[in-house]
Design a protein that fits this description.
CATH architecture of the largest domain: 3-Layer(aba) Sandwich
Largest sheet: 8 strands, parallel
Oligomer: single chain
Shape: globular
CATH topology of the largest domain: Rossmann fold
CATH class of the largest domain: Alpha Beta
Number of helices: 11
Number of domains: 2
């Protein structure tokens, strides 16, 4: 068994030995395998409580040549989120163990950007809710895929707004506009005439359909908060959008879809990666993401470089 330390991963990415493009290409390859039935989520077990807050997730997956086991434990001692994530990757006769935080953040951000690539016309203006590690990886993926003219984002704290704004100005070529998510007028300005909304943070007030109509008619929404504890969109949003999922059973159990059982699903992001839903590119679309093990197999990019 070989352990790949977080500092090893950081060195590979910081020195551009592994680029964002390499991770994007790997996840696209995995999604296409998924759409063809050649990538499988072998199991997913989720246990969650709110008092005390505790989320325990186990994911299993496999593609040709690789198998994966991922374990996540998330708690909030004294109100501060602590997460321990471990990925075990099996390849031929070798076993690799990695801390999974970077992989999780990266594959989540990229998946939200790829869903937009498959379901909406070219993105000029995008909006982000949240300013943590997942939104950062999404912004890097969106810069690579779309080269947006403008990036808007909204978050809660002034400190995180300043930090994320600095990050976006450093690593993208877009105009950057920062908003306060608690301010109703700011929320409207965030969404007005945008092509893409990436939602990756819990909201105190659900996004209403009338707010979503401020976006362009062909706009796409990637909802990346499917932990079974959050509810960030009113039901009418999902009723009015064409929906794809990572895994339908998981989305109906712990995604936004759990609140709208009658909502119709087009299919999976794997099918979208194969171009099956091109006819919906002029409609409002919604990706209800709950996370799946095959996405974490982008860890193979690190393993192959490390070997």
């Amino acid at each position: 068994m070989k352990t790949i330390l977080p500092e090893d991963i950081e060195t590979l990415t910081r020195t551009s030995q592994i680029s964002m493009g390499a991770f994007i290409n790997a996840l696209e390859e995995i999604f296409r395998l998924y759409g063809k039935g050649q990538a499988m989520n072998t199991h997913k077990h989720v246990k969650s409580t709110t008092n005390p807050y505790h989320v325990h997730i186990e994911l299993g997956a496999k593609i040709p040549e690789y198998e994966l086991l991922k374990v996540i434990d998330e708690t909030k001692p004294e109100g501060k989120t602590e997460k321990d994530t471990t990925i075990t990757l099996y390849h031929e006769n070798e076993t690799f163990v990695l801390k999974g935080d970077f992989i999780t953040d990266t594959r989540t951000g990229i998946a939200g950007a790829l869903a937009a690539k498959y379901l909406t016309p070219p993105v000029r203006i995008l909006a982000i809710i949240g300013a943590g590690k997942v939104p950062r990886q999404f912004a890097l993926a969106a810069e690579y895929l779309f080269h947006p003219e403008e990036i808007r984002f909204a978050t809660r704290s002034e400190i995180s707004r300043r930090d994320f704004e600095g990050f976006l100005r450093q690593f993208t070529h877009a105009r950057v506009k920062a908003y306060d998510i608690y301010n109703a007028e700011h929320r409207r300005e965030l969404l007005k005439e945008t092509d893409l909304l990436f939602e990756a943070a819990p909201l105190d007030t659900q996004l209403r359909y009338e707010e979503i109509t401020l976006m362009n008619p062909h706009a796409h929404i990637s909802s990346m908060t499917g932990d079974g504890l959050q509810h960030n969109f009113e039901a009418e949003v999902l009723r009015r959008c064409a929906i794809i999922v990572d895994d339908e059973a998981s989305a109906r159990k712990s995604g936004e879809l759990r609140h709208v059982p009658a909502a119709k699903i087009l299919g999976t992001i794997g099918e979208a990666s194969l171009g099956k839903f091109q006819g919906y590119r002029r409609e409002r679309t919604f990706y209800d993401s709950t996370g799946m093990g095959i996405s974490d197999l982008i860890a193979k990019v690190i393993v192959e470089k490390y070997r």
